[in-house]
């Protein structure tokens, strides 16, 4: 046992992200990146900020970026927190708002980073199973808790819950913070953001990584009542004064400013998702109804076999070994030619079995 | 008392960074930024990475950047950890390596973020006073401890300790991790890095913000034995999988690759520091011997008055209200014309008192 480690380090089981192979010719459908690039205005804004001013610290409060987000969502700066990717925002939320005497609740099949944060910050938690059809039923969270968190749409299932269901949950849990992790919300689900003005216990977390095609830049944010945001700020200012660099702040502001591009990319992803869903169904795959930029699907052959067969063809998808979902694959919606390659390969793989 | 906050949030007294005024005509000598810009090769590397690949996640392990640092220092990748600024690296080190039953030791006059990390992670600490001349005497740390951390050179004093003194400390504390925070080491102090191969309990933390003129990009790193680095990796992978964005990684690699530029900028800063030190001394200021890119100086008039008088002239320096140092100012070494403006202003301010 390494003698220099703090006690908490021994206990950790770190999160394992999807692999990032460096091979350039792979069709990479394993980490839910957007197949379309960021807005040209984002690249221009980065270029304009790439100069001698990089010798200077960024604004520690990222005020201009927070103002841009506040204006976009019809909120105030005091409703906005920004971080180095939504994973960092979530980490601060776990420590600042979700650690209480009663256990935190989250779904059994969900973002697998949640239990990792709980281990890091010594947060007691209880998992709430999804139903057999992988639906997330918020009424199942009616039990004593110190906080609730779930992704909407859920990952890796892609299934969404309605705003009305979230509102009912907020009303039933006035003493707990409810974190809605909306990493994928822009691909067709109902955002909880319009309820922020009415519910002091609602924190919504979003990211620039998916719908805004900026996974490479690390920008996430939280929206909520000022009291919740202040807790995040206090933890952030006790951890790292300057989490957002100058280029990321400039990029984020430009992305928020290019609404037509954002809408166009969302639409393209959703159209491709419908096409892939229909084609997969035609090949005998079960496909859950997805509101995300991926589909969760059960192949007619063992999922691990299909994953390996795709890999041999240079196509990478994500497989999880958790018992309830080991017969399923999570496949990111790619560009049209990538989805074509996927579907052609799957047609071959399925027919091989016959 | 805000009801949704985790208990730890109530206890926090966040770090307050030096202000980052947005006014463009200020002479900003308050946050130890480098007056010279980053290497042109850094700006080229960022430009080359500013393209459609920003839609993709960065390498979660920043392997190329870690390899560049390992090669530069004659170490292995397993000896290198990188983070979103050295503040993040320090935060992880506090949680992963410095939290033990015995108290952490650090100087009373030092980087004021250390007690903030202790509050965040609930680490017991004991402060070790500097001597009356603000020297850091490592023999004063000979007491039971769960870890030791100090900056070398120290901040805000600028005073350095020798490698031999650090080695003696390492030998006297084989059961504790000793963190040497070398944010300013490139401006003339002796680095502890050559001792990493011989001492498993040594962690050295450095940054791209000061000597490499990249405060705006947020890049820091730690060097140490693989066991120490693994502890940091485990905490990082339980907090944020992708802390280093694509542009920062490219910039860091390019910076490490331009040694002549780095050496030239260091030399310029050190030459200006000697010039400023002599001129201040001539004006009746006491100046501590500095190995950093700032000087710590006691003006012949009350420090707060001098700070305000400088401010009225558009020159910002840093004043700390802590009792032992409230008669002192920390002044960053600027570009030659900025230092000229500082010295001219101080000459006026000092003569006004007569």
UniProtKB/TrEMBL annotation, chains A, B:
Gene3D superfamilies: Aspartate Aminotransferase, domain 1 (3.90.1150.10), Type I PLP-dependent aspartate aminotransferase-like (Major domain) (3.40.640.10). It is an enzyme of class 2 (transferase). One of its GO terms (biological process) is L-histidine biosynthetic process. It catalyses: L-histidinol phosphate + 2-oxoglutarate = 3-(imidazol-4-yl)-2-oxopropyl phosphate + L-glutamate. One of its GO terms (molecular function) is pyridoxal phosphate binding. The modification N6-(pyridoxal phosphate)lysine is found at residue 210. Residues 25-347 form the Aminotransferase class I/classII large domain. Pathway: Amino-acid biosynthesis; L-histidine biosynthesis; L-histidine from 5-phospho-alpha-D-ribose 1-diphosphate: step 7/9. CDD domains: AAT_like (cd00609). Its cofactor is pyridoxal 5'-phosphate. Keywords: Amino-acid biosynthesis, Aminotransferase, Histidine biosynthesis, Pyridoxal phosphate, Transferase. The keyword Zinc does not apply. Its EC number is 2.6.1.9. InterPro entries: Aminotrans_II_pyridoxalP_BS, Aminotransferase_I/II_large, HisP_aminotrans, HistidinolP_aminotransfase, PyrdxlP-dep_Trfase, PyrdxlP-dep_Trfase_major, PyrdxlP-dep_Trfase_small. It comes from the Bacteria. Pfam families: Aminotran_1_2. Belongs to the class-II pyridoxal-phosphate-dependent aminotransferase family. Histidinol-phosphate aminotransferase subfamily. Homodimer. This is Histidinol-phosphate aminotransferase.
């Amino acid at each position: 046992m390494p003698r220099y480690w703090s006690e908490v380090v021994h206990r950790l089981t770190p999160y394992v992200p999807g692999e990032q192979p460096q091979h350039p010719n792979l069709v990479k459908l394993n980490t839910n990146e957007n197949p379309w690039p960021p807005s040209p205005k984002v690249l221009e804004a980065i270029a304009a900020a790439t100069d001698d001013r990089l010798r200077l610290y960024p604004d520690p409060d990222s005020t201009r970026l927070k103002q841009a987000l506040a204006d976009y969502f019809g909120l105030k700066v005091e409703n906005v927190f920004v971080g180095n990717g939504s994973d960092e925002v979530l980490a601060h939320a776990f420590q600042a708002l979700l650690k209480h005497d009663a256990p935190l609740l989250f779904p059994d099949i969900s973002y697998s980073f949640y239990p990792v944060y709980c281990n890091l910050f010594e947060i007691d938690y209880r998992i709430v199973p999804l139903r057999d059809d992988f639906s997330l039923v918020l009424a199942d969270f009616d039990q004593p808790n110190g906080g609730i968190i779930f992704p909407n749409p859920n990952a890796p299932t892609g299934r969404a819950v309605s705003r009305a269901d979230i509102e009912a949950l907020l009303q039933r849990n006035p003493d707990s913070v409810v974190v809605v992790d909306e990493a994928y919300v822009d691909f067709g689900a109902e955002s909880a953001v319009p309820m922020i003005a009415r519910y002091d216990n609602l924190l919504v977390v979003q990211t620039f990584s998916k719908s805004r095609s900026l996974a490479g830049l690390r920008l996430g944010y939280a929206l909520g009542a000022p009291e919740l945001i202040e807790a995040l700020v206090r933890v952030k200012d006790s951890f790292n004064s300057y989490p957002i660099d100058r280029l990321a702040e400039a990029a984020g502001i430009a992305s928020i400013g290019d609404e037509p591009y954002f809408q166009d990319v969302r639409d393209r992803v959703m159209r491709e998702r419908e096409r892939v869903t229909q084609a997969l169904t035609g090949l005998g795959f079960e496909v859950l109804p997805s509101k995300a930029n991926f589909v969760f699907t059960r192949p007619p052959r063992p999922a691990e076999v299909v994953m390996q067969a795709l890999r041999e063809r240079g196509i990478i998808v994500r497989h999880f070994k958790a018992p309830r979902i080991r017969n399923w694959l999570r496949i990111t919606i790619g560009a049209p030619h990538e989805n074509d390659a996927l579907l052609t390969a799957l047609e071959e793989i399925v027919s091989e079995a016959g």
